[in-house]
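Customer escalation, tier 2.

The customer says the design service returned an amino acid string that "doesn't look like it belongs to this structure." They asked us to rerun it and document both sides in this ticket. The original structure tokens are below, unchanged.
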């Protein structure tokens, strides 16, 4: 698994495209998929935060938080931008971080980006295994599918 800084170092254009899609509305917004106890998917929007080269999310006391504590595998997908269907997709492993000083820095980054937060959120680091951005032509243009894909996979130990 890798951190966002590894993605930036090895695939800077791919990371820049991903960052632009995640932060297109000011706050870092995406959909986070987790695995329910019965093995099914669970999908909800979340705020993500890039702090010191690491991708984090804050999760309220919820079934999603339980999913991440039990089985940290995740998939993250950007919101679609206006005018195109560009997308950015990550998979990896979420790790719970009880460090209150780090949590405070992530909360500060989230608030500064324009998002809200609450005292009952727990901090998770999103380690990255795979990144996949897809670029489309503007909506309405002919031959808009398939998109142009770029792929990045974290180096294996």
């Amino acid at each position: 698994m890798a951190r966002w800084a590894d993605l930036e170092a090895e695939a800077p254009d791919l990371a820049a495209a991903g960052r632009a899609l995640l932060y297109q509305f000011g706050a870092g917004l995406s959909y986070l998929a987790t695995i329910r106890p019965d093995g099914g998917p669970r999908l909800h929007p979340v705020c993500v935060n890039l702090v010191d080269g690491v991708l984090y999310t804050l999760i309220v006391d919820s079934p999603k938080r339980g999913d991440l504590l039990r089985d940290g595998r995740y998939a993250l997908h950007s919101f679609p931008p206006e005018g195109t269907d560009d997308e950015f997709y990550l998979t990896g492993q979420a790790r719970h971080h009880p460090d209150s000083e780090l949590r405070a820095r992530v909360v500060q980054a989230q608030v500064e980006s324009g998002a809200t937060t609450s005292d009952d959120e727990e901090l998770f680091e999103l380690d990255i295994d795979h990144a996949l951005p897809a670029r489309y032509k503007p909506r309405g243009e002919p031959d808009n599918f398939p998109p142009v894909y770029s792929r990045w996979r974290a180096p294996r130990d």
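Tier 2 assessment: The sequence is consistent with the input. The radius of gyration is 16 Å. The chain is about 25% helix and 40% strand. Sent an explanation to the customer and offered a walkthrough call.
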